[in-house]
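Reading a protein record of the kind used here takes only a little practice. The record below shows the convention in full:
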Amino acid sequence: MTQKERATFVINTLKDLYPTIPIPLDHKDPYTLLIAVLLSAQCTDVRVNLTTPHLFAKADNPYAMVKLSVETIREIIKPCGLSPMKSKAIHGLSQILIDKYNGEVPQSFEALEALPGVGHKTASVVMSQAFGVPAFPVDTHIHRLMYRWGLSNGKSVVQTERDAKKLFPEASWNDLHLQIIWYGREYSPARGWDLEKDLITKTIGRKSVLKEAQKKSR
């Protein structure tokens, strides 16, 4: 199979498996999504979804958030880890949104990435999921699967994103990055992986990955 044929196989298989695609982080608008994605750094989406209701009950917009102290925010978000850094970022970016953007989340990669605690991946998630702008945020699942499928060399998330954007049509990016995440969780996890259940890797997987998996199953 050529790279293009592999990419088409991935798109078609994931469309069949996930015709409707749930968004992993609970939110109601661009601001609450931005905060949820920021909290998800080195934390599971499940944990974030358990924590954000407590935070958003006190402040679900930048005007209410800046009235909370950094310490109060930190206490609420502690279960998500890295709370000293994340609480400062949440408070700081909320103030910037008020000062520079009338309390609205800006709709550009550049403006988002200039906010405290917001990197390229967070900006990409917000641009794609809140504003429908084509983006391909790469998380650990996508990075792992693009390597397993022989579609990227796995050297860095930057390279993986570049390869994904070259391989997949732009119109598919926003759905596809979510479909790959769900597939990674359900069929191709990092731990407890069963190649037999992983149709895509079994069909188009990198030879060295398949060899390794077969060795372990003996």
The chain has a mean pLDDT of 96. Residues 63 and 98 are 7 Å apart (CA to CA). The chain has 13 helices and no strands. The two ends are 27 Å apart (CA to CA).
